[in-house]
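Section handout 9: paired folding examples.
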Amino acid sequence: MPAVHHVRSAEIQLTTQTAGAPVPTNTTMGTNEEPFRDRDPISNDDAVKVLERSDFEIVGKMLWSSNATYLVNVVDDEFALQGIYKPAKGERPLWDFPDGLYLREVAAYQLAVNLGWDIVPPTVRCEGPMGVGSLQLFVPCDFDIHYFHILEDPINQLTLQKVCLFDYVANSTDRKGGHCLLSNDGKVWAIDNGLTFHVDFKLRTVIWDWAGLEIPEELLSDLRSFIERPVTDNLSSLLTGDEVAAMMHRARGLIHAGHFPSDHSGTRYPWPVI
C-alpha cells in the first residue's frame, strides 16, 4: 500500500519517477519523514526565475485536491524550494470552464502582480513529468490554520481585504477557507486559483466579512492604477479578450461602488466552506 502521510490536516501519497511518470511507492522516504520542507525567504522575482529555469522531482500527490496536484522538489543549485505542480492532464472536465485551468492559476498570479498585491504565490507555466501545467511556489505552513483563524488576528485584515477584492476582480468561484494560508513567516497567501476569470459572474467565496463597508482608499488607489495601465502581456496572453474585458469591468465596478461586494442572495458560498 502506498505510504500516506498525515501531515497536520494534509495528506500526501508518496511517489517515485519511472519513465517520466509518477507512481505510488513505499520507498521514497521513511514513514516518519516530513515531506513538506521549510525554506529561507525568497523574493517573488527570484522564485519565478527559479521555477522557470529548473527541473523538478515529484514527491507525492496531494490527496485532498479535486484535480491532480503534486508536491515537488525543485532542482536548483542556489535555492532549496518546493512547488505545487498541477498538470493539465490531471484536470477533471467541467461543464462551465474550458480545459486548461492551469493557465488560470498562472493568470491569477499575474493579476496579483498587476494589482501590486503580494497575495498569490509565484506561479509559472511548466513542462513536467505529466506534461504541461502550472508550477507554484510551495508555502510552508500549518494546514490546520485557514481563513477563519487568520481573520481573528487584526494584523491580517488589510491583506484579507485584498484577497476579497482580488477574488471579485478575478471572479473566483472557489475561495474556500482552506484556500487561504498563513505561512510559517506570517504572510497570508491565496492559493487554488484555477476556477477564475469566467466571463459570467460566478463569485463563490467565504470572505464576506466587510460586505457593504467602504473600501480603504489605499486599495481603491491600487484598483484605479490597475485599470489606468495597460494589462500586461503576461496576463492578457493567458485569457481571452472577453475574459480580460469582463475582468476590467468588475474592477471598474468596485471603484464606482466604493464598497466591498455584498451577497444579497446568501448563496455565493463554496462548498465545502473549508
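Moving on to protein 2 of 2.
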Amino acid sequence: MFESLLEPFSYSFMIRSFLISIFVGISLPMIGSFVINRNLGFMGDAIAHASLPVLVIGAVLGASVFLSAIPAAIIIAVTLSYIISRSTVGEDTAIGIVFSTFFAVGIILLKRYNLATTLNIEDILFGQILGVSRGDVISTIILSLITISTILIFYKQILYLSFDPIGAQVTGLKTKLYDNLFLVVLSLAVIGALQSVGIILVISMLITPAAAAKLIIKNFQSAILVSSIFGILASISGLYLSFYLNLPSGPAMALSSSAIFVICWLFRRSVRLI
C-alpha cells in the first residue's frame, strides 16, 4: 500500500500536479470561506466563465496564463463591480448576463482564431492538471501566493466588510476599495485554478471545502484553516483517483471535495468544534 502511495511521485508530471494541487487546495477554499459568508458563490462561477475571452486573447498574443491572469482578473472584477453597482435588475441577474456574455465571446474567439492546438476547450472546461508544464506550475504557485498573502495582509478589513458591510462603511472603511480588491483576488484565485479543475468545476473547489468546514467549525478563522486542509485532501485524493482509475482530474477532485462535504454533513452534530 505504501508503494502505491509513492508510485505517482516517480513521474515528473505527477510531481508537478501535486504541487499545483496543494497550492490550489489552500488558496481557493481560503477565499471561498469569505465567498460563502458574503453569498457570492455565483460570483465565483461567473468569474471562471468570464475569464475565457481574456485568456483566449492572451493566447492569440502569445502570452502565458500568468501574464493573462492579472489583466483578466482586473478587467473581470472592475466590469462586474461596475455593472452590479449600477444595475437595476438585481445582482444575480446582472452577474448571469455578464458571465454568459463573456463566455460566449470567449467561445467565438476560440473558434475564430482556430486555437484548438493552443487551448483545448475540454481542458479549459474540465481541467487537465496531469498535463501541466513547469511554467504552469510556477504561474499557479505565484497566483496562489498572491491570493493567500493578500487575504492575510488585509484580513481584518475583508473580514469586517464580510460580516458587517454597513458598519464598515459607517466607521470610514474604504468599502469600495476593499470590495474591488476582494474581487480581483478572487479572480486571480479562480484563474490560477483553471488548469487543475477547469471553468465548470472550479466552483466546487472554491465552495465545497469551505462549506464542509463551516458545518463542523464554529470559529471563522479556524474554519478557514480547516477548509484549506479539506481543499488539499480533496485535490490530492482526486489526483490519486485520476492516476489509478484513469479518471478526468477535475471531476475526480470535485467528487473528492463533495465526499468530504457529505462526511461533514453526516457528522455535523456530533463533531462541532471551536
